[in-house]
Amino acid sequence: MTGYTAGALSLKSPKAIAAARGGMAQYVVQRLLQALFVVWAAFTLSFLLLYALPGNAATQKLQTSSYISQAQYEQLEHYYGLDQPLLTQYVKQLTGILHGDLGISVATGMPVSQLIGNALPQTLGLTLLALLIAITLAFVVSTLATVSRFATVRRICWALPAIGSSIPGFWIGLILLWLFSFSLHIFPGVGDGSFAAMILPAVTLSLRTGSLIAQVLTNSLDKEWHSPYMQTVRTVGYGRLAALFQQALPNASISVMTVIATHIGELLAGTVVVETVFSRNGIGRITQVAVTSQDMAVVQGVVIFTAAVYAGVNLVVDLLYPLVDPRIRNSSRRGRK
Amino acid sequence: MTFPTSLFASRTKRLLTVLAAGTLACSLAACGSATAAQSATDQTLTVALDGTVKCLDPWQFDEPAVHNVLRQVVESLTALDTKTGKLLPALAESWESNADATAFTFHLKKGVHFSDGEELTAEVVKKNFDQAATYPQGVRSSSYFANYKSTTVVDPQTVTVAFSKPNGSFLNHTASDFLSILSPNTIAQSAEARCAAGVVGTGPYTLGKYTPNQDVTINARKDYDTNPSYAGHTGEAYIKTIVFKLVPESSSRLGLLTSGQAQVVQSIDPQDFQSAEGSGATIVPVTTPGVPLRLQVNVKEAPFTDQSVRQAVSYYLNRDEINTVAFGGKSEPAISLLTKNVSGWIDLSDELKYDPSKADKLLEDAGWSKNSDGIWEKAGKPLSFHITKASPYTLSQKLLELVVQQLNQNGLQVDFADYTGDYSEVTGKHKYSILFANTTDIDADVLRGQVSPVDGGNRSNLDADDDLVAPLSEQNATTDDTARNKILQDVQKEIVERGLQIPVAYLVQFYGLSKGVQGVTYDAESRLNLYDAKLA
After folding, report:
1. Contact state of A65 with B16 under an 8 Å Cβ cutoff
2. Where are the transmembrane segments (chain A) (predicted)?
3. Looking at the structure, do residues A209 and A288 belong to the same domain, yes or no?
4. Using an 8 Å Cβ cutoff, are A259 and A216 in contact?
5. Which residues have a Cβ under 8 Å from the Cβ of A192 and sit 6 or more positions away?
6. Is residue A242 predicted with pLDDT exceeding 70?
7. Do A144 and A185 reside in the same domain of the chain?
8. Which top CATH class is B290-506?
9. ipTM of the assembly?
10. What is the number of domains present in chain A?
11. Residue B407 to residues B389, B390, B495: CA-CA distances in angstroms?
12. Contact B106, B92 (CB under 8 A)
């Protein structure tokens, strides 16, 4: 496929290529603006949601304390600017963010950027490892489900993704903890910054995403594998494995890109559960604690961060599509005409 | 976040039983021997705490986990003997007060240093108290300093704290972690900086690495020089490094304990007691001082305008069963309105006994009768009410389920739900029929704070001319223990007899200690004290 499309592109006139590039620029700007809108909308919606909840960071900090006078409570609200009108608080936060200042966490006293910055490497490492495991698992399972010579193996591998995606993450997490940490003493049971402590949570986190990728990949690989062109590929001299790895898998992988892109957000969301079960610091745990303590600035910071990651990954994938798939490139040009 | 642990508890238990033998064999053989070979001060202790440590300042937060860490780092002027209720010297060597409880003089210990090298002086204590009295972020301090006038430096080692109105409870409160004495360098910092970077105290440990939501490490001070009277040794703490792991999942805390990854665990769930003890660990129940978990009745809300109904509710509660079912029998039934570790408590086991027939009689005499469904009703209206849950205690859900079950069995229609919104508004405007809450305090003055309609929280919604107002104020205006305790005991009896506050259970922290851990003690507020702790 790739050889054919590269040839097709080289046949275009210089004018057509320039026009395609102009369309590309417009496409990029359009997608960039969309991404910015997504981030802003996520910020605004979460702001309104948090504001609509009863109580605020000050009441959450004091919780059920009966030792606070009304005067002290008001003093505290004023200190954190929680007594200002909704619009003032919104504009103040938004201008702060535009200036790169995410504010200060009421509960922890730390700047939100520092709180997220400290947690980010742990979550990033965890999600990347999880993604790696998920993709590896998905490819292994899908390949076996499609090309294994044993019918039983194929059947099992067809069924695995459905099972994997329906098991709750925290349950798997607790089982893995009991087995590999508390009983067999292979891995630490709580986060301690080591790589060993990252393995169990990464496996837990990878199962759902891996299953979803496997479901899509198995379907499309099956389609490719049984397509008429595979006959041609085999007859021109490709062996079974070469046909699989050089032709069928690359073609089937395009659909997987979309799944990965849309599930990056889900991986990040999954860290809320996984980081809690495995007692790790990270974006997920910060979010969970911040939501329960109505620590507005932190929740907003995490929302902006997550929305930016989500929009960013989708943007990159959207931009990559035309490069790998000529159909999308051609359709965007046709649409312009 | 809470997970429905009960769903997989049985599975977990099965796994445990299968693998317990292996775990035990390992801990008896090679795994435990590494620490034994090391010298005492090279030891590391791992403590698994329940909840979060959001802030490293004991003045600013209520959470037990925060205080379990910081109690090792900061000290207070005094300490309370949990058994006798007697005040013991700590940073203050001795103290005296005037007769009307408006002035308290403390003589400080000489040669005590903060871990940043600052010396403990009268001037430092004054700086602490001047700030604590009006600290907006302080969860307790401004209340403990009610009617604060000033702190005067008498000489470099002597301060006098003066109040414009009597404040007898102040003396006991000087033992609280909420009024711990901080370095002048900490006092000069902003509330945010103190939270994030941590406070500096005179305690045997200093704060080390802190990863929010994950762990806090503290290190023993070589130059520790307070040497408090209540401790078992002097000088440096036995254990050099303590790592506090913040573990929100209760089954994970159990696993850390049974697998030897943690030696001390806060909050072991009663359903896990057997598993923990099976691994050789000990469960230590520590009662949190103050007013127990209780039903605070709003007497202006029907049906509680009728005293008989309030009394009947109390007699329908089977506190023995509550202890057995909710606490695995490891606590004791509540028999008082103040916990037994608060000076001035009185045994009210007669008033708080389980007596359904007496309760039935009370309701019948008040004109209630059971309808065909077995529900009490009067003038066609069933005896039904809602309980508002306002206790953050981990077991409070389970306790309330039991309370509701016991009351329903006796023909009362009861349900419960968490409070919503601003707690000060819920309590200030009495937006409840019954509030289920607990209050931690080391002094009996907490009763005034909860019940008095004049200078307290008025949780039972009493009138300003109620009989209880005068004695509740009087007990705080004397420093004569005998006189004060007499007033307090009468007050407790009256509150319970009138059914204003109905004790349900003592709030108990269940600590798990693995085999080989020695010398762990608990301060008056039921926090860990690890200065004397050792690993065998």
Report:
1. no
2. 32-53, 124-145, 157-180, 186-207, 298-324
3. yes
4. yes
5. B214, B215
6. yes
7. yes
8. alpha beta
9. 0.82
10. 2
11. 16, 19, 21
12. yes
